[in-house]
Amino acid sequence: MEHRRLGKSGIKVSVLSFGSWVTFGDQLDIDKATESMQAAWDAGVTFFDNAEAYAGGQSEVIMGEVLRRMGLNRKTYTISTKLYWGITEGPNTKNTLNRKYLMEGIDDSLERLGLDHVDLLFCHRADPETPMEEVVWAMSDIIAQGKAHYWGTSEWTGAEYKEAVEVATRFNLRAPVMEQPQYNLFERHKVESDYLDLYDTMGMGLTTWSPLASGLLTGKYNDGIPEGSRGSLPSYSWLQERLTDEQALKKVRELGAVADDLGASLAQLSIAWCAANPRVSTVITGASRVEQVHHNMEAAALIPSMTPDVMERIDAIFS
What we know:
Layout: E1 3-5, E2 12-14, E3 16-19, H1 30-42, E4 47-49, H2 58-70, E5 78-83, H3 99-113, E6 118-123, H4 132-144, E7 148-153, H5 158-171, E8 178-179, H6 189-194, H7 198-202, E9 205-208, H8 240-243, H9 246-262, H10 266-275, E10 280-285, H11 290-297, H12 308-318
Parallel strand pairs: 3-4, 3-10, 4-5, 5-6, 6-7, 7-8, 8-9, 9-10
Antiparallel strand pairs: 1-2
């Protein structure tokens, strides 16, 4: 498994990583999560992604227990979590990045994970109600306390990220070094347009999520929403309109011809396409069963096949 530097920072992450959104707690119990994470680790994955809000905190609990079961040396893997949405009711515990919430939130996440630090800590969304100076000071203090090694953002605009870096520079604080945006063949604006001037000038690294567009790019929704799929979960009913959009499904069917020519599946091609972008440090994959992990990890071997000709064929479909 290839490892890439996270932007201009010194830390490296596996080009394919494994995340727990949707699956841990909702579709995978501890035993199945252990099986999936072990399969990812055996394939060369060293970066595991999480967030406090996933399954109301249970995702962190499960991942922490899995890591203990696997018996991995803490120095050999990289783990992240994210703060913003909150999981307890209160005026300072939901949809905020105020200092009180961040300082208490990281402690709660570490307790659930059973760790004394995470490697990467993300602000899960931007908070327009909290001054940027307060956010950056708090995140910088968390780094100084050794509770995280690097901090970054998730789904921030380029302007918001730039402001955070400028605040950090002005006050000699730790600046964000990474962003976690959605990135796939249907969702490209942030990565390919909004952030363009940030990669070289500010060293932004990318840990992208949803390479399969919530399963749309696997082709499994071409004939409707299968029972037991993510699209069938009541808590993800908001996805159903997108997963049944006929124009999008037409593009997926056309993409299937490219995958067939490469001897790959739609999922493997879609993951490899994301990783072929040199700005992407790691592509976060997910799975509801271990067979999907094995299948997705084979995309790593497909990355060299993403030649200019292949990329042009794909762009012609999704332009």
